[in-house]
Write a structure and sequence with these properties.
With 58 residues, this protein is of the alpha+beta class. It has one domain: Alpha-Beta Plaits (2-Layer Sandwich), CATH 3.30.70. The chain is built from two helices and four strands, in the order βαββαβ. Strands 1-4 form a two-stranded antiparallel ribbon. Strands 2-3 form a two-stranded antiparallel sheet. The longest helix has 10 residues.
Amino acid sequence: MNVTIENSCIGCGACESICDAVFHVEAQAEVNSSAIAGNEDCIKEAAGACPVSAIIVE
């Protein structure tokens, strides 16, 4: 699984509140790539909850 954050991220923190093992938000969300394995379900949930669809999951 590949997870990226687009520039449209508004830094709302929704992804971090859903999946804090993978996402960290300061000005924009950042992805902890080493934590993706085992957290696929919450990553998909966070992507679905993003208000600006900035989380790309491939």
